[in-house]
Write a structure and sequence with these properties.
It holds the Pfam family TetR_N. By secondary structure, this protein is an all-alpha fold. It has 10 helices and no strands.
């Protein structure tokens, strides 16, 4: 977990003005239409009415471009100052707000991307650095503060606990095919995460 959080994305030159947002929007559209495997830099350049040279100045590979596009669509950079004063409040703020689990992103897009992760090393690397790392870092800080506040029992496996909410959301989304909702997030927090956090302190 910490290895992913410590990894940092390589800095690349920005595309001027609003062109970068237009290119990222076009990337999501092409990704939804063609899927990751069939997506090409040419297709994105055509959809965005940009030159391929413009794309390659900012993104070395299509993996970097695609991960930047879904990161932006899911709210990236994620806020790094979530601190409501309680574990429950932090988890709700992190999971239900902009960039959280309920942010709009077609299931077909994310499902196709997760499938491609298993066979594309460039995509794995970009996904870990640019998408997962900032989110893992925020989650780690949320749970570290909860430990310091005494909200988590001394006998609790904090790393495993921190993975429970995203694991259940992924199960609902990509195994059951059910779009995550705020209600689902609250149910998991109130009936799974918080009782488990108390550990042997639970009555």
């Amino acid at each position: 977990m910490n290895d992913v959080a410590d990894a940092g994305p390589r800095l690349r030159p920005r595309v001027e003005g609003g062109r970068e947002e237009e290119i990222l929007d076009a990337t999501v559209e092409v990704l939804a239409e063609l899927g990751y495997d069939r997506l090409t830099m040419d297709a994105v350049a055509t959809a965005a009415k940009a030159s391929k040279a413009t794309l390659y100045r900012r993104w070395t590979t299509k993996a970097e471009l695609v991960v930047d596009a879904i990161s932006r669509a899911k709210g990236c950079p994620v806020p790094n100052d979530i601190d409501t004063g309680s574990l429950r409040g932090d988890l709700i703020s992190m999971s239900c707000g902009e960039g959280g689990f309920t942010s709009e992103m077609p299931l077909s897009v994310m499902a196709g991307l997760l499938t491609a992760l298993h066979r594309d090393e460039d995509l794995q690397k970009a996904f870990k650095q640019n998408f997962l790392a900032p989110r893992v870092a925020v989650t780690t800080r949320v749970y570290e503060r909860a430990v310091r506040r005494g909200e988590i029992g001394a006998d609790v496996d904090v790393e495993l606990l921190s993975q429970t909410l995203p694991a259940l959301v992924v199960h609902h989304a990509f195994v059951l095919g059910i779009e995550p909702t705020d209600d689902l997030i609250l149910r998991v927090i109130d009936h799974v995460i918080l009782p488990a956090a108390r550990g042997s302190q639970a009555s």
